[in-house]
């Protein structure tokens, strides 16, 4: 089964990239309004955007 292994790797890589993008989008969307209510909004925003 040498042909199945590369396809599985590409599928896993695509799924990993998709999940990472989705997690980053959800994290940035959910943490956005929360940081606005905090007193140190500028410090937290600089840490979130790396």
Concise overview:
The chain is mostly helical and 50 residues long. The protein has one domain (4-48). The protein contains two helices and no strands.
Q: Alpha-carbon distance between the termini?
A: 43 Å
Indicate how many domains the architecture comprises. Answer: 1
The largest sheet, given as strand count, sense and whether it forms a barrel, is: none
Mean pLDDT: 71
Percent strand equals under 5%
Structural class: mainly alpha
Please, could you describe this protein's structure?
The protein is mainly α and 50 residues long. It has one domain. Helices cover 84% and strands 0% of the residues. It is built from two helices and no strands. The chain is rod-shaped and about 40 Å long. The mean pLDDT is 71.
Task: List descriptors.
mainly alpha; 2 helices; signal; ATP synthase subunit 8
List strands and helices in order, with pairings:
Blueprint: H1 4-37, H2 41-48
Helix pairs in contact: 1-2
């Amino acid at each position: 089964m040498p042909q199945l292994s590369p396809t599985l790797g590409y599928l896993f890589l695509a799924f990993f990239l998709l999940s990472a993008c989705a997690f980053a989008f959800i994290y940035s969307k959910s943490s956005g309004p929360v940081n606005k209510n905090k007193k140190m909004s500028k410090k937290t925003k600089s840490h979130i955007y790396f």
